[in-house]
Every structure is written in C-alpha cells, then in structure tokens.
Write a structure and sequence with these properties.
Blueprint lengths: L17 H17 L4 E5 L2 E5 L7 H24 L11 E2 L4 H5 L5 E4 L2 E6 L1 E4 L2 E5 L6 E2 L1 H17 L12
Parallel strand pairs: 3-5
Antiparallel strand pairs: 1-2, 4-5, 6-7, 7-8
C-alpha cells in the first residue's frame, strides 16, 4: 500500500469522468492543428497528423515541410502551456510513396525546437507496426509481422526455463 496524499490536479485513472474531461482538456488542440494541416486522428493520447504533397514539386515539399514544422511547434507550445510533455522519443514521421516518389524527397527529417525527428521506415499505430517495404514500395504489415515473430520466438525460447515444471496430458 502506498502512503495517502492529496491530489490537487488531474483525474484518478479509471474514473467515469476521465475520458470526458480528457476530451474537454484536449479539444483546443484540434483548433491549433486545423490552422496548419487538413487531417488529424486521435485515439486517447495518440495523435497522428496527415499531410499529402507532390514529391516532384519542390515548392509543394517546402510548403508541406513548413506546415508540419509550424504545426509541431504550436502543438509543443500548447502542451507546455497545458503542463504536458511531448515525448520526443516516440514522435515519428513516415513518408509513404513509391520508390520513385521517395527518391525525389529532399528532406529526411523534421527539426522542431532543436529536436530532430528522423524519417522512420515504420511507425506504431495503436500497437500495430505499419511500415514501408523496399520490396513492395507501399504501406504494409511486414514490420508488425516481423515484430510479432521476434516476440514469439523470444517467449518460446524462454519457455525452456519452465519446461521441467509443465505436465503434458494426452
């Protein structure tokens, strides 16, 4: 048992009002994003920003890059003002396109407030790894399948430690 202490902010985890209060608290975030980008998806505390552009058009790339950087700056400022912290280690960006389209890109990272966010070949979305493949040149589940296979082999390998305690009934 932990010691009892008073909590002057926040909502206890598992409370009925928690989800509603979270939505109210974060509703202004959508207004900030709408100023910069056309699409955003949120689920709980995961936020995903979407932006499309023509990779062969340098001006379109620059406009898209600038819009994303400015949006991220405003999100970071909103979070600091709201006493929240943007986790830079889990912030990722993914560019989806054909091999020819991706070869036309001239930026492989986004810098926001001296934090460099490198382009990823795969990203996690609600526990599922999505990524681009060199072979298929499109978004796919290969990253997720590989991750699940690694985890499965790890657990199978570790099960040898308890195998002498298992009884197999036929």
């Amino acid at each position: 048992m932990s010691m009892e202490f008073s909590l002057d902010c926040g909502v206890p985890q598992g409370s009925y009002l928690g989800p509603l209060l979270f939505v109210i608290y974060t509703s202004s975030l959508f207004k900030i994003i709408e100023c910069h980008l056309p699409q955003v998806h949120c689920y709980a505390d995961d936020t995903q920003l979407y932006l499309s552009f023509m990779p062969g058009d340098d001006d379109a790339q620059d406009v898209a890059h600038h819009a994303m950087v400015e949006c991220m700056k405003d999100i970071r400022k909103w979070m600091i003002d709201g006493r929240l912290l943007l986790n830079d280690t889990t912030t990722e960006f993914l560019v989806i396109g054909t091999r020819q389209q991706l070869s036309k890109l001239h930026s492989s990272s986004i810098e926001v407030d001296n934090q460099n966010i490198d382009r990823s070949s795969s990203v996690r979305n609600l526990g599922v790894m999505l990524g681009t493949s060199q072979l298929y040149e499109s978004l796919g589940m290969n990253s997720h399948i590989n991750q699940m296979c690694k985890a499965s082999f790890y657990h199978i390998h570790n099960s040898r430690h308890i195998s002498k305690y298992l009884i197999i009934l036929i």
